[in-house]
């Protein structure tokens, strides 16, 4: 509990759980107004985010997002080791500075300049994204970073040979602008066979990774202020991509059958887009049931909305065949299918693809033209060979077996060593597991303790917008071998104890 007297304004913040306005935005507006009218005075120390989340009965992520935006806009100041304070000089007060001030300010005055509100929100979201660099422990990928494939067993010699072969074939076309038709053809063929996706080569649009794909979809289909459903908890990259075009994001809770469509209809039936990960929901790992898939398509049909299906690691299913894509049962061309090679090959490749509805292909190609023209052609041509010569399918088969073994090792050691500290259960698919913490343990604090012991284990609460989840840690296993899995478990034990 906080040792500070609780300011009266904090006991009466008007948070409306039923409102379409996200709770973090309501909290941001309430705190900002209290600061502007002087109810929270300059220099006042605020209670901790953990205390406020408990007191206000919202997720800690809600408070963190509101604090991050207020800090980015200059209303709050964070002092390391001390806490969060109301800023001494408020941005709104600066608007009333005399016009006699010099028009050319010293360079150092520019250091505190703030971005737009949209920029501040993106900055806040960036803090919730995994760091781009990969942490090592004794020269190996550190446990338990999620979303990283087995880089140690990727067939680098084959890939290098294909790159070199394409480089030797270098022609004027390879050095010029243009699309890579062979890659689109091989992707269309693979998706039809392996994922049940219905598409022609022309519908496949190669992009620079799934994040660019999300951004393109948002730009083509949404205008500023349009509402879009996002899974809660869910993928921060989708949330940030939608915010980046000025969309109004609507968090929709997820249960064991996936996105709760009825909850989305209740909170915002007029949404223009729904972002979903139906084959393997991130981060909970559940699979969207057929009933929910049909409900989602029915809602899209009735409201003339779109569905963006992110199929980011669907290849890794360990019991039975991979489930068919949602796009394959869509009869009205309302689903835009998104895939990436970052999870099945290696993140640095930065190649992904969209399958656009036939009537929107030209719109998507135009949007990509103004974003990146096209991804590098040499890598596209090498990837086309990698797929067409069978290396891609063989690699996936090997990784599916390897990841199943690594998951089994993680579950076995966790059950033996982590009893009472972390409950880890196996999953039928994916590249990470959830480790459930005891009720009294805060997952954000547990994650920080783990990091201090050289373990990367993201807290589940980081991926929540409004939904309050039980405390859990994400444990990625795909990219680490059995030795590091066991060593990581032992370091995690010390952290949690």
Structural topology:
Elements lengths: L22 H14 L12 H8 L3 H13 L3 E4 L3 E4 L4 H4 L22 H10 L9 E2 L2 E2 L14 H13 L12 H14 L9 E4 L2 H12 L5 E6 L3 H8 L4 E8 L2 E2 L1 H7 L5 E4 L13 H14 L2 E5 L24 E6 L11 E4 L5 H11 L5 H12 L2 H27 L5 E2 L7 E5 L6 H10 L19 E5 L5 H15 L1
Quick take:
By secondary structure, this protein is α/β, with parallel strands linked by helices.
Protein described:
It is a single chain. The chain is α/β, with parallel strands linked by helices and 497 residues long. It folds into three domains: 8-93 and 117-126, Arc Repressor Mutant, subunit A (Orthogonal Bundle); 136-153 and 393-496, Aspartate Aminotransferase, domain 1 (Alpha-Beta Complex); 170-389, Type I PLP-dependent aspartate aminotransferase-like (Major domain) (Aspartate Aminotransferase, domain 2). It is 39% helix and 13% strand. It contains 16 helices and 15 strands. It has helices at residues 23-36, 49-56, 60-72, 91-94, 117-126, 156-168, 181-194, 210-221, 236-243, 261-267, 290-303, 361-371, 377-388, 391-417, 443-452, 482-496; strands at 76-79, 83-86, 136-137, 140-141, 204-207, 227-232, 248-255, 258-259, 273-276, 306-310, 335-340, 352-355, 423-424, 432-436, 472-476. The protein has an eight-stranded mixed sheet, sandwiched between helices. Helix 9 links the parallel strand 6 (227-232) and strand 7 (248-255). The longest helix has 27 residues, at 391-417. The protein is globular and about 70 Å long. It starts with 22 loop residues before the first helix and ends with a helix. The model is unreliable at 93-109 (pLDDT under 50).
